[in-house]
Specification:
disordered C terminus; elongated; Rossmann fold; alpha/beta; single chain; 2 domains; 13 strands; 18% strand; 7-stranded parallel sheet; 6-stranded parallel sheet; 14 helices; 360 residues
Length: 360
Amino acid sequence: MRVVNAMFGRGRGGLEESFLVYHEALQAGGHEVISMFDPRAAVREAIQALHVTMEPVRIWTHWDPLTVWRVGRVLKAVRPDVIVSHGNRAGRILLRASKDRWPVLARLPNFRFRRILACHGFIAILPGQVEALEQAGISRERIFHIPSMLPRLPARKSRPPLNPPVIGAMGRFHPVKGFDVLLQALSWLKQRGIRFRAVLAGDGEWAGALRQLTTKLGLDPQVQFPGWITDRASFYDGISVLCVPSREEAFARVMLEAMAHEVPLVVTDADGPRQVVQHQQTGLIVPREDFVALGHALQSLLQNPMWAQKLARQARSQVETLHTLEATVPLLNRALELTTIRHPRASRAQNLCRSQIKTC
């Protein structure tokens, strides 16, 4: 099957990471992949390394006629069997550009999908998205629950304790990510004489504010800001626990990566994390905005390393069962097949074939 895999974000985050992974998942499923993206995308070099056909299209806005025309021209040239879109912007542009000639299967990175309900199929990464789509009037047959995936898992290995233990976090520096709450929790730990170091990896519009807060809280000796991390394996090998302190989070890929590396997790009860992590089974869940609860959870894992590693091992088993290519590629293939054969174009072709047989 010829599949256009499309994403028009230009940043660096979970949406872009998932877009990259889907190239490998589609290839593993035996499909021909055409990658469509904005040439200004931060992940362009990573796409080039995947050795897929690339169709960069400069994007302005979802309603810009020139943008829609450019995307439509590419679709006419490559004539895909199906289009997989990542994110609302891509879904809206592709719906307009395809003009219902090719089916659009939308992978949902979050719960904001009201403007792309005309897509022919939906990939929900969380059970809550399935429920939300049904409540929005989408028939169950158009919804496919496919958990987020990791293309490969690191080898299992022993993790010697770090002295002092290291608390890690990674993501885009934005208020919704809650890194300020984490810094307050770290200050709470320091006031109680608990030894630790912390690594806050990432960057973004809030970087300056977070550094200022770090200084204000007297955490400069404990907290490092290394920027975006390219060697993710070394990052996870160098931390004792990963924290996802988000105020809002549909899904954080760093959770899966930490689980795969057997790093204990503390997450908030935001929509995505609480549907992936099982409290006191594969990690700890705390209320959003509550830095004291977050501090207590971090303290419990740092001071009980055997329990922390038990949670981490159980989390790794969950990833092996649900989030590998072996587990998800068959689900993706079925979603592509059913979305394609249910598309009106396929129905018209079948009717034409039947009429030709009757004529003969």
